[in-house]
Design brief:
This protein is an alpha/beta fold. It is built from 15 helices and 16 strands.
């Protein structure tokens, strides 16, 4: 099949961007990647990338970056399909939604909706509207904050940002774990001083295996057409981070919760919902919604769900036949670099032991970066990691 539209991936400096490029390139699609620097862009080393372009920084020079994208599209015979590989790129697309929609193809049809769903507070309001449980949450600007946290949530609890991307860039953490009232006020005051909107939330008790993921594609009628489920085994930072080791497993209960929610809010395109089961009550809570292709995308590809290609085809031609993976295929995802740090910390804190680590070993691992058929990104990444190690020494 001849593909007339190019695919443009924003960000090849991380393995998510690399996975998007591979998933499209394997199908014979012309893929271009756009970064703001060539430094550490190991995803650009893949054999499936046709163009690697350097543009102004999306955050420091957003207007110039917008002009760069528009000028690129104007030179093409057909509208390119746009793929953000991280939340900051999603925020950029939402900000310049109408300008970009004129020159690029992407599934969402409402300005600001992606950001609205990623925002923890508005997401919780949407969840409550559709009777989906969310952890007990208090806005940090509520009156009598200390009293309410003591009475309604208790300690330990977590501080979560409404805007994760900028919060992580500032503090290098997805959340702050709070053990007492003094810590609470110290972190709240710090976040307010830095102009972050934050929430205080109850920690859902339970092991990492209780953290579930629902990965789905919704067509332009906001109907789920492709999906499966998975669960986390390890993550980094531990307990509140991204998956470093995860496994595909069909959990019908998760599908029954997430499908009506995503269809109800009229979502379009790929989405992942993260959830966690309370080990004391058995209740499943919605934790967050991701709107970009996620970190274990290569595992999903091996399960027969090529979400970047599904997106591309609906935007340019027609949606592939609906498909769901409603059985356990045994595939696992491994991001070895961060998983080594995770294993060390789980052992140190006593949350896992060697016996569990060995028990969870799989022989159907899908690596985040390494590929025997496409080795250059992995070799480049290993060189980067070794240089970092030498620098620390």
């Amino acid at each position: 099949m001849e593909y007339k539209n190019k695919a443009v991936v924003l960000g090849a400096n991380y393995y998510i961007g690399l996975s998007i490029i591979r998933c499209l390139g394997r199908e014979g699609i012309h893929v271009s990647a756009i970064d703001y620097t060539k430094e550490d862009s190991y995803g650009s080393k893949t054999k499936y990338l046709k163009e690697h372009l350097i543009a102004p920084h999306y955050g420091r020079e957003p207007e110039e970056f917008l002009k760069f994208l528009i000028n690129y599209s104007k030179k093409q015979d057909h509208k390119p399909v746009l793929f953000p590989s991280s939340d900051p790129y999603v925020e950029f697309i939402d900000k310049y939604f109408y300008e970009l929609k004129e020159y690029f193809l992407f599934p969402m049809d409402r300005k600001g909706f992606w950001s609205e769903v990623m925002d923890k507070y508005t997401m919780s309001l949407l969840a409550e509207k559709f009777n989906v449980k969310v952890p007990e949450t208090i806005n940090s600007k509520e009156e009598k904050l200390k009293e309410r946290v003591n009475e309604e949530i208790g300690y330990p609890c977590i501080i979560k940002p409404m805007d994760s991307a900028s919060f992580v860039r500032k503090y290098r953490n997805k959340v702050f774990i709070i053990d007492n009232e003094d810590e609470l006020m110290e972190k709240v005051n710090m976040c307010h001083k830095d102009n972050f909107e934050i929430l205080i939330q109850r920690i859902i008790p339970g092991p990492e295996d209780n953290c579930y993921c629902y990965d789905a594609y919704l067509n332009q009628d906001s109907k789920v057409t492709h999906f499966t489920t998975a669960y986390k085994i390890r993550q980094w930072p531990i307990n509140f981070g991204a998956s470093t080791y995860a496994k595909q497993k069909y959990i019908k209960e998760i599908h029954d919760i997430c499908k009506p929610f995503l269809e109800g809010i009229k979502f379009k395109g790929f989405s992942e919902i993260e959830l966690k089961r309370d080990e004391n009550t058995g209740i499943i809570y919605l934790i967050e919604v991701n709107v970009i292709i996620i970190n274990f995308n290569e595992m999903l590809y091996n399960c027969g769900l090529n979400f970047p290609y599904i997106t591309y085809m609906e935007m340019t031609d027609k949606l592939p036949q609906p498909k769901s993976v409603e059985k356990d295929l045994g595939y696992t995802f491994l991001y070895m670099y961060e998983d080594l740090f995770a294993v060390k910390e789980y052992l140190k804190t006593g949350q896992m032991n060697i016996s569990k680590i060995i028990k969870d070993v799989s022989f159907k691992n899908v690596a985040s970066t390494w590929s025997f058929s496409d080795p250059m990104p992995g070799l480049y990444f290993m060189t980067m990691a070794f240089k970092r190690f030498l620098k620390k020494i």
